[in-house]
Amino acid sequence: MAPFFVAKNKDLTYNYSMEKKKRKTFTEEQKLEAISLYKTGISYRKVSIEIDIPETTVKRFLKTQGLSGNVDMSVKIVGELEVKVLALYNSGLTNQEIGKKINTSPHSVKKW
Fold first, then answer.
1. How far apart are CA 59 and CA 57, in angstroms?
2. What is the DSSP letter of 23?
């Protein structure tokens, strides 16, 4: 039996065990599922809810695979916008017209 002590604080009694907590381990399948869900475009927070793993653990899985939470998603979104901007530009629209269509400034359109 592990030693413990009781601390009293007003009317509350707390039991503190001296045993070490066992670390929760995750299977390789859970790790791969988290990574594949993230790669489909789901945020790490939603992935953690979906497969019942803490957010920080999902972030660690992604980091070990060279994927970081927000950077990859922003790169993906910018890439899609650049393709859309180029298509609109090639169709003959001005930077101002493109900016209104994609809800950004003409200056941002010009940078792409």
1. 5
2. P
- Return all residues near 30 (Cβ < 8 A) that are at least 6 apart: 51, 53
Location of structure tokens 């950077």: 71
pTM: 0.43
Residues 22, 27, 33, 35, CA torsion sign? positive
User: For residue range 42-70, what is the model confidence (pLDDT) as tens digits?
Assistant: 888 888 898 888 988 888 888 888 776 55
Tell me 19's DSSP state. S
Other CB atoms within a 10 A radius of the CB of residue 56 amount to 10
The answer to whether 104 and 95 are in contact (CB under 8 A) is: no
The more confident residue out of 92 and 24 is: 92
Paired tokens of 69:
């939470």
